[in-house]
Every structure is written in C-alpha cells, then in structure tokens.
Amino acid sequence: MKFVLFFACLPLVAAAGAEAVSKQNKASDATARHAVAVLDEVWTNIKKSHFDQNFEKDYRDSIYNKYLPEIKKAGNDTQLAGILNRMVKEFGQSHIQVLPPVNELEVMALSAAEKNVEPVTLNSQDVPADVGIIPCIAENRLCVSRTVKGSPADAAGIKAGDCIISINGLKLDPSIKSYIPWDTLTSFMLAGMPESRVSLVTANSNGIKKEYMLTRKPNGFNWFKFGAMPRTYAAFYSETLPGNIGYVHLTAFFPEQITSFVKAITGNLKGVRGLIIDMRNNIGGVVILPQWLAGWSCPQVIKMGKLQLKEATLTPSSYPQQQCFKGPVVILINEGTASAAEIFAASMQDSKTAVLFGSVTSGKCLPSQFLRLPSGFRLQTIFGDYERENGKRIEQLGVTPDVPVTLKLSDLRNNTDTVREAAAKYLEQKLAEKQ
Q1: Per-residue model confidence as pLDDT tens digits over 284-322
Q2: Per-residue pLDDT tens over the stretch 58-77
Q3: Is residue 378 within 8 Å of 384, Cβ to Cβ?
Q4: What is the CA radius of gyration of the chain?
Q5: Are the CB atoms for 221 and 233 separated by under 8 Å?
Q6: Buried b (16+ CB within 10 A) or exposed e, 33-48
Q7: Using CA atoms, how far apart are residues 230 and 112, in angstroms rounded to an integer?
Q8: In angstroms, how far apart are the furthest CA atoms of the chain?
Q9: pLDDT in tens, 80-126
Q10: DSSP for 251-293?
C-alpha cells in the first residue's frame, strides 16, 4: 500500500512542479518585458533630445543591442538600474544617467536630503535652513571648510578641519565613487526646514569623535529645484580680504546668485583692487548665465565657445557692464565645479581675463534635462554639446587650473584655505607689480 501511495502521488507532485515552473516562467517573462519597456523608455527619451542626428545608426547596435540580452535577465529594478547606468556610460558623455537603485549610499543620501526639505505641515515656514557648515574634500576626507559666523555649527564649537563622519546615522564614505561630489551631497543633507534637527558626528585632528544635535536655522536664501534632485538652495557669500581683495563664493548659476554678485560688485566690494571668484562645488545651473556673470566680471567681451543643439548652433558672448569689475580676477575651481561653472571658468581662462587656481573640474559640461519616466525611473539626459572657445572640449576632460593647488587638511585646521590663500598672494603680487 505504501508503494502504491508513493507512486500514485508522483503525477500530483509532477503536476505541482510543472505549475510552479510555469508560474516562474510567467514571472520571469513579465520581469523581462518590464525591463525591456524601461530600456525603451530610456532609449527613446535620450534619442529625442540627443544632438547626434545619426543616433540610431551610431548607437543602436553598439549599445542598445549589446545590452538587451543582459537587461532581459535583470531580476529586479535595482539590477536593471545598474545595467542601464553601465549602458549609458558607453555614450561617453556626462549628464546621461538613470537614477541608481535605492540601496546605494549616494541615493540613500539623496533620499535623506529629499525628506529633509519637505514641509512638515502646510503651515511650516517653507524657506531653506541649515546649520552653517561649508563642507569640502581635503586629502580624501570629508571635512568642514568653515562655519558661518553665528550659525548653529559655530555656536556648537564645530571647527574648520573637523572631519564629517555621519549625518543622521548615515555614515558617509568619500572613497566611494559618487556622480555627485560628496561635499555637495553633504550640503544637501544638512539642508532642511527651519527648526528641524540634524544629528552630526565629527572627528577632530586627534581622531576623537563627537556627536552634535543641531537645529537648522533659516539661511536667507531661497529654495530651487534642480531637475529630479532634492530641493536645495544656492548660496552666495562675499567679503573683503586683506590687501583690499574682494572674495565671492557662489554655489550655482541661478538669477539670484548673479543678482547677488552685481550687488556685491556695486556695493560692499566696490573699490576692491583684485577679485577672487570661488566656483568650487558650483553645480552649474542656467546655461545662459555664465555670459552675464562674465559681463560683470570683466570689461572685455568674452566669447564663450559653441553650444551645439539638435536644431541650432549658439555662440554666446558676454555683455560688459559699465559698473563691472575692472581689475585682475582669479577663479577657484575643484572636482565639484560643473556644467555652467566650467563654461564660465574656461571662457575666462581662454580669453586670458582670469587665472584659475585649484584642481581639475568635473568634466560634466553638457546641457541636460531631468525626466521622470512612466515606469517610475528617473532619467537625466543631454540635449546639446559644448566646445570651448579654444576649440577644446570640457566634457570628460574638465578645465585644468593655471596654478594647481591642493586643499590641505592641516591648513584647514589652522583656519587656512590653502587654495584661497594662494590666489590672494598671487593677486597681491600682481597688484604690486602695477604700482
């Protein structure tokens, strides 16, 4: 009887197994169809705005068909996004990316930043707030470059040169390659709504860790939305350095920053003999604004290269203003200087109207747009190509400084910005030669 029962059950087991396999196959087919649908969404939107008139001919076989089999095998959206990002890298152009899976540290940081900047209630004061920390990368460490006087960080005793270990429990690791510079990501995470709180762990020069609970305070700027990125703010700061040298730091190219620059040049910096324009970690912005900043930075007409769009070629130039700054100019750049900021720095360098100090820029210099696809994936894709006035490209190469200077952690801890100090000394020497 036992043998009869045993063998009698075999067809039932086989039927159950076949049903399970059938379900697996159907699920696998559905996953593959979803993956191909997402691929086609991404491909169609890139093609729609790409400047290459022969897009299909140039890329269909070498990129689309190459990755299609692997994409069909993607087990989930996390794997799919990883494959798609490897695929779009084969275009060899920046500003094309599918936002990566949510389990990656970079996206975790972005997700945390996005939650910070949403109003808690409809009655919340909807202005940007932060703790007054200006972050930077020095010797591959994520550090405090300076704190804003009177800010929560300043009041808590956080010092320049302190290393940032974690924010709200998320440990930050600048050794992990990130499309967005880690100091920029840190600024995103430190921003939030007024009176909201943020936990910050730092380590001092002796490696001693300390945790702070800081309350964000309004910083006087305005929110802006940069495509699919979290809402953030663009900062502007100006002061007069020893030797009557003006210093301005702007972190994006939006109308508010250009307006602030004009007010500084015609106001508190009027009469300075030399000017330092700090473009470090400037994320770019509106593509036409570099020519306006150049018009207020120099009395000479600055040709700003060639912008090749799908339907037209643009050759922008600056419009020198009567009250523009007329002395020697130095521009500070680093790996976080991107897009419109790279165009500005390169154009001033090519025209020999400014000297560049710092390190090579990001090489991410193509006009782009952010799209939210029907599948829920988000895509950043380009709609033009850029060539600087000297005939060279910035894309994938960056802008090389005239004077390479490394930001040193030891100097930061002595309240010395190595790059800014080198620029100031250069201007002092330049001005002394003219006397």
Answers
A1: 988 889 999 999 999 999 999 998 887 788 899 999 999
A2: 999 999 999 999 999 998 88
A3: no
A4: 26
A5: yes
A6: eebeebbebbbeebee
A7: 9
A8: 113
A9: 988 998 999 899 887 788 875 444 566 667 677 767 777 655 556 78
A10: -SBSHHHHHHHHHHHTTTTTT-SEEEEE-TT---B-TTHHHHH
* CATH architecture group of domain 105-218: Roll (2.30)
**Contact in structure between 282 and 256 (CB atoms under 8 Å):** no
Decide: 363 and 94 in contact? Cβ < 8 Å.
Answer: yes
Domain range 234-368+386-406+415-434, its CATH number among 3.10.290.10, 3.40.190.10, 3.90.226.10, 3.40.47.10: 3.90.226.10
Residue 5 pLDDT: 38
Residue with tokens 């001033």: 348
The pLDDT assigned to 61 comes to: 95
C-beta separation of 82 from 76 below 8 A: no
The sign of the torsion formed by the CA atoms of 251, 254, 256, 257 equals: positive
The Cα 406–Cα 413 span in angstroms is 15
Alpha-carbon distance values, 18 to 7, 9, 12, 75, 381 (Å):
17, 14, 10, 21, 44
Hey, where are the domains in the chain? 18-91, 105-218, 234-368+386-406+415-434
301 CA to centre of own chain: 29
> Which DSSP helix (H) or strand (E) runs through 13?
helix 2-49
Pairing of strands 384-387, 129-130: unpaired
Handedness of CA 120, 126, 131, 134 (dihedral sign): positive
Check residue 8 and give its pLDDT. 41
Residue 210 dihedral angles phi and psi, to the nearest 5°: -145, 140
What tokens does 134 get? 């200006």
Pairwise CA distance, residues 110 & 230, whole Å:
7
Residue 379's identity, in one-letter code, is L
The series of mean pLDDT values per 10 residues for the chain, 435 residues long, is 38 51 64 93 91 91 96 89 91 78 58 70 75 95 95 97 96 85 91 94 95 96 74 91 97 93 97 97 91 97 90 91 97 95 98 98 84 80 88 93 95 94 97 85
